[in-house]
Write a structure and sequence with these properties.
about 110 residues; mainly alpha; about 60% helix; elongated; binds zinc ion
């Protein structure tokens, strides 16, 4: 799981409010995103659409569950979006002279 994958998913979810809402309200805390089978046919359909839209085929079960929990935390405001963007920036940043204060990726190469 990477912050880049999360950013891609968040962008997809902005265009798919039904699935976004589903993730926000998801509360099967014992089975989680990995093991939950929705009994309600409508919710099951949304769950399947979520899998098709967000799974890029790179995830183990744990990676998938962790990614969706992180997305849920961002959508619920538990992990502030601005803070997420800092992590995303640090993952993406290749600028050795980056002036983002939180971006320490190349801090030991700065003069
Ligand atoms: Zn940077």
């Amino acid at each position: 799981m990477s912050f880049t994958q999360i950013k891609t998913c968040l962008d997809i979810l902005e265009k798919n409010p039904t699935i976004k809402n589903y993730i926000v309200q998801f509360n099967f805390n014992s089975s989680g995103f990995m093991y939950t089978v929705e009994r309600d046919p409508y919710k099951n359909q949304i769950n399947q659409q979520m899998n098709e839209l967000l799974d890029d085929g790179s995830h183990s079960g744990a990676s998938w569950g962790m990614m969706l929990r992180t997305i849920q935390a961002i959508l619920n405001g538990v992990l502030p979006y601005e803070e997420f963007l800092d992590y995303y920036h640090i993952e993406q940043c290749e600028n050795k002279q980056c002036d983002n204060e939180k971006c320490k990726k190349y801090s030991n190469t700065k003069i």
